[in-house]
Amino acid sequence: MRKLMESANIGKDPSDLLEEDMVGVEFKTVEEAESFYHIYSKIIGFSVRKNQCRKNQAGIVTTRSWCCSNEGFRRTKYIKNPNRVREPRSEIRIGCRAMFRVCYSKITKLWVVKEFRANHNHCMATDMQKHFLRSHRKISAAELEQAKLLKKAGMKTSEIWNLFVHQNGGWDKVGCTKKDLYNSLACMKDKLPETILTDGCRSMNKAIEDLMPSVVHRTCSWHILNNAIKHVHEEGFVGELRNLIKRYISNLLVTLIYGASG
Question: How far apart are CA 50 and CA 65, in angstroms?
């Protein structure tokens, strides 16, 4: 968070940020802006979801916004359904107006904050509750692959969870709940992935090679870019590498789509 704050020239503590502090702030990429808001929301204690996404005539995103998960209201048809079998989930959409919006500037080639509402109409999660917030619960690709390998080797899901708790220094630092882990492994039961993306851990590489020799193993692009940032200090290199990866993925998708239809 500190690096994001510094790169965007934000001098305040995240908990003290107001609209006048944020409007006009610039981010290099829309991903950087999204990362900022997600980290900010976790520090403050609320969950985030994507809101509006506007594109130009060429289909390129020019505006992106995120809002508090308590924004808006649940539609009446989902509440007053006479054919409902189960009780409706507890209502979380209570009209909260907190949000964050950025627009792309053709002049500066940067993403500029156009709107930032910091006030909420509900209580924030405590430090002990933050890891339960939906937008902050995620099993990393590397940990999911580790969990599947351990499951294949005979470990129980509860034992895998205890291992993750130990690795991360506490159950509140794992990044997901035990139920999330159970659900993720249940979805992958008896299914081998065609490709596995990891952070390049050598022990993980060896385990995948031994237990799933038919599966293609690749290092994810996020880790490739981060390694480049750390080890290659040539100006413009990371940007060119990022564009190269995007072009490769785009061309691959085109080939898959039109190849399958042809």
Answer: 6
